[in-house]
């Protein structure tokens, strides 16, 4: 949408979780002298050298979380985890009588995401009756990984009241609970990322109670606008926070209205500020001063 509005050609290159394919895509962009790219790196070590070449050539790079980039987009991970953890803690207090058996499906091996689980654990500690019966990272951070891990957990624990993690993993855990006929409408199943399947589950009114969305249509629109600004010689942010939005069945329709029309949100400062926060600035003439470190607005100097 943003590329079309700014008169830019737009192409999607899918790496299918293959780091070498992603490197090949960037090398092709270098050879074709593409003006801008938005990347969600699979393997930072293999991709970083070609990204640096692309920046040195004058191109704009918007990266989703890892460096290097002209603009790094990141979520404040502590705030993201806190949003989900606080919602789960409140549910345990008000709906489960202050007692719950909790499963955390983490992603602690990813240094950029580990802080969200620090915040979730802290929120749960505020509820004395919340007992974490499993705190584990699935082998794969996807639906299959979540389902396999929950199957193993259920061998030792037949009652689970709360499951928290990334949406895809938690959706797999819910599938395992249903498979074992242990899913209940009074459970609190909650995730992070705002996956469409999670939203569909919430709409049903069953166990899936919340998803912390990072509003990808809105941040995607913003990154494309910044790419166009860069190509026109304008200043762009060096850091961009995508602020967490706790979405429940009650707030889902309003959130979906915003994400269905990201342009309207982007050009309305009050609405944009609910989703995005910009830091620093850079322009073509200062392109050598790109972000080459793991940036987060929550980092303490």
Describe this structure in words.
This protein is an alpha/beta fold and 301 residues long. It folds into two domains: 2-75 and 215-241 and 276-286, 3-Layer(aba) Sandwich (Rossmann fold); 77-213, Rossmann fold (3-Layer(aba) Sandwich), CATH 3.40.50. Helix content is 44%, strand content 18%. It is built from twelve helices and eleven strands. The chain has helices at 2-5, 19-31, 44-56, 77-95, 114-125, 143-156, 167-179, 196-204, 216-231, 252-260, 262-266, 269-273; strands at 36-39, 60-64, 71-74, 100-105, 130-136, 162-166, 188-192, 208-213, 239-242, 245-248, 276-279. The strands form two sheets. Strands 5-4-6-7-8-10 form a six-stranded mixed β-sheet, sandwiched between helices. The chain is elongated, with a radius of gyration of 20 Å. The chain starts with a helix and ends in a 22-residue tail after the last strand. The model has no long low-confidence stretch (mean pLDDT 95).
């Amino acid at each position: 949408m943003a590329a079309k509005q700014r008169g830019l050609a737009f192409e999607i290159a899918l790496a299918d979780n293959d780091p070498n394919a992603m490197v090949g895509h960037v090398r092709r962009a270098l050879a074709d002298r593409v003006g801008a790219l938005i990347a969600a790196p699979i393997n930072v070590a293999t991709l970083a050298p070609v990204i640096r070449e692309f920046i040195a050539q004058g191109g704009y790079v918007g990266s989703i979380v890892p460096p290097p980039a002209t603009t790094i987009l990141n979520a404040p991970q502590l705030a993201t985890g806190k949003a989900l953890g606080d919602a789960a803690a409140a549910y345990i207090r008000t709906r489960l009588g202050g007692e719950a058996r909790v499963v955390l499906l983490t992603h602690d091996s990813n240094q950029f995401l580990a802080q969200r689980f620090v915040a979730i654990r802290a929120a749960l500690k505020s509820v004395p009756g919340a007992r974490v019966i499993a705190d584990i990272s699935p082998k794969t951070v996807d639906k299959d990984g979540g389902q396999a891990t929950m199957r193993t957990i259920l061998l030792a624990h037949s009652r689970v009241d709360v499951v928290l993690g990334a949406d895809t993993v938690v959706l797999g855990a819910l599938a395992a609970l249903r498979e074992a006929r242990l899913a209940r409408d009074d459970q609190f199943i909650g995730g992070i990322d705002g996956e469409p399947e999670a939203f569909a589950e919430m709409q049903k009114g069953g166990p899936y109670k919340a998803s912390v969305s990072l509003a990808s249509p809105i941040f995607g629109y913003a990154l494309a606008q910044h790419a166009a600004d860069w190509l026109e010689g304008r200043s762009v942010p060096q850091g961009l926070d995508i602020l967490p939005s706790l979405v429940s069945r009650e707030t889902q329709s309003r959130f979906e209205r915003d994400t269905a029309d990201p342009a309207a949100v982007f050009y309305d400062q009050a609405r944009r500020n609910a989703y995005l926060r910009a830091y620093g600035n850079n322009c073509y003439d200062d392109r050598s001063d790109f972000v080459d470190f793991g940036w987060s607005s929550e980092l303490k100097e």
